[in-house]
Write a structure and sequence with these properties.
Layout lengths: L1 E5 L5 H14 L5 E5 L11 H22 L3 E4 L7 H5 L6 E3 H12 L3 E4 L5 H12 L5 E5 L7 H4 L1 H19 L4 E3 L8 H8 L3 E2 L1 H15 L20
Parallel strand pairs: 1-2, 1-3, 3-4, 5-6, 5-7, 7-8
Length: 237
């Protein structure tokens, strides 16, 4: 099967890291293709950034259907930008990393906290938790004094901040697992888990593995009503 990881921002270093991660965790018969849209924000750290990123996500899904033979898609930004609309553009599975991570976290633990980037991301993350129905299981949203780009430019310092918040979540929130609230944290999951001493859920890996399961089950996006094609001329399979 072929899984396309769409990094909705245009920072190639993040896309390259997602390709490496995908290659490492996928099944031997799974092909991973990680891309960034041609146009979009360099990082996604606001609702405005998310809105700018969505058209590029749509373009990559349409291209994947028409030209690339893609079997499933992963939206590798924790805001899951354009996820529901993207599902209207394909009959294939489309998974956002936040939704995938939350589902995986509650299968692995009774409750979790989210560790994300700057304080500006708190409300956006709370909105996701509520939208997906995980208010009861989510103990707290923890932010860190960093920008997304810090994970590429000064990863050691950035990861240390994430680890500190994970330890605080374990000790103060009584969280039993941590969801990483940024795709830029994905390559550091094992390091964070080893240092923090608590299960760490990375949404990118969760989404890849769930995509493999859905394709293996022959399960795609329902076109019965809600995620039906937006209009007949947009049908791209």
């Amino acid at each position: 099967m072929k899984i396309k990881i769409i990094n909705p921002n245009t920072t190639q270093a993040f896309t390259d890291a997602l390709q490496t991660l995908g290659n490492a965790v996928c099944q031997p018969d799974t092909e991973i293709v990680a891309i960034s849209p041609i146009n979009g924000p360099s990082t996604i750290e606001s609702f405005y950034d998310e809105a700018l990123a969505v058209p590029g996500v749509f373009e990559e899904i349409i291209k994947g259907n028409k030209e690339e033979g893609v079997d499933a898609y992963v939206l590798a930004c924790f805001g899951d930008p354009g996820l529901y609309a993207a599902r209207e553009l394909t009959s294939k599975p489309v998974l956002g990393i936040a939704e995938a991570a939350f589902h995986m976290a509650v299968m692995a633990s009774a409750c979790f906290s989210v560790v994300t980037t700057s304080a500006r991301m708190r409300f956006m993350t709370e909105h996701l938790v509520t939208r997906y129905g995980f208010d009861a299981q989510c103990k707290k949203i923890r932010t860190t004094p960093m920008r997304v780009a810090d994970l590429a430019n000064s990863p050691d310092e950035a990861v240390a901040k994430v680890i500190a918040e994970c330890i605080s979540a374990r000790e103060e929130d009584h969280a039993e697992a941590i969801v990483l609230g940024c795709a830029g944290m994905s390559p550091y999951r094992e390091k964070i888990e080893q240092a923090a001493g608590i299960p760490i859920i990375d949404g990118t890996v969760a989404a890849i593995k769930l995509c493999e399961a859905m394709v293996g089950m022959g399960l795609g996006t329902s076109k019965v009503l809600t995620f039906n094609w937006p209009r007949p001329e947009m049908k791209t399979n």
